[in-house]
Specification:
By secondary structure, the chain is mainly beta. The protein has a single domain (27-154), classed as Jelly Rolls (Sandwich), CATH 2.60.120.10. The chain is built from three helices and twelve strands; from the N terminus they run E-E-H-E-E-E-E-E-E-E-E-H-E-H-E. A seven-stranded antiparallel beta sheet has the order 8-5-10-3-2-1-11. Strands 7-6-9 form a three-stranded antiparallel beta sheet, with no helix packed on it. A two-stranded antiparallel sheet has the order 4-12. A hairpin with a 4-residue loop joins strand 1 (15-19) and strand 2.
């Protein structure tokens, strides 16, 4: 049985990683912190970031928009999500998003927390003074196939 630990992280605390699909992730609660119950991170995304159409076969994905605006594509429909908006996407449902504001800050929750390996392998640690690595969708696709946590279904639909 996995055990949870008491975890407290302030706004600027948590492991920071450059996600190879774009964005700066700050991990707030990792699998080991929650006994595998969930994975929680904050992301800062640049305007224009677009994800490929994808799904998460083994985890529900929820995001809460803290700043900015995104266009969300789910089940063949597009809708805007504004500050204070939330999206709950059940496992296996195809979805994608595009940041439509100059930047967006989002809080992400994967339940259960079984996708950390995907996000860790598809990102690089932030090293102060070093530039962000380039976006690398080939790496995202390879890591998705290797971990099974994400299934890439097609190009960005938006």
């Amino acid at each position: 049985m996995k055990t949870q630990t008491v975890t407290v992280r302030q706004r600027d605390e948590g492991e920071q990683r450059w996600f190879c699909g774009g964005g700066l992730h700050t991990w707030k609660a990792r699998e080991e912190d929650t006994g595998g119950a969930f994975l929680l991170w904050e992301s800062l995304e640049e305007g224009g970031k677009a994800t490929p159409l994808h799904s998460h076969p083994g985890a529900d994905e929820t995001f809460y928009l803290l700043e900015g605006e995104v266009a969300l594509y789910v089940d063949g429909e597009q809708q805007a999500v504004h500050v204070g908006g939330v999206a709950v996407i059940p496992r296996g449902v195809a979805h994608a998003f595009t940041v439509t504001s100059p930047q967006a800050r989002m809080l992400w929750l994967h339940t259960p927390g079984n996708s950390e390996a995907f996000y860790r392998q598809a990102s690089d640690p932030v090293v102060p003074g070093e530039p962000r690595p380039p976006i690398d969708f080939d790496r995202i696709s390879a890591v998705a196939a290797a971990t099974g946590a994400t299934e890439i279904l097609g190009p960005p639909p938006l």
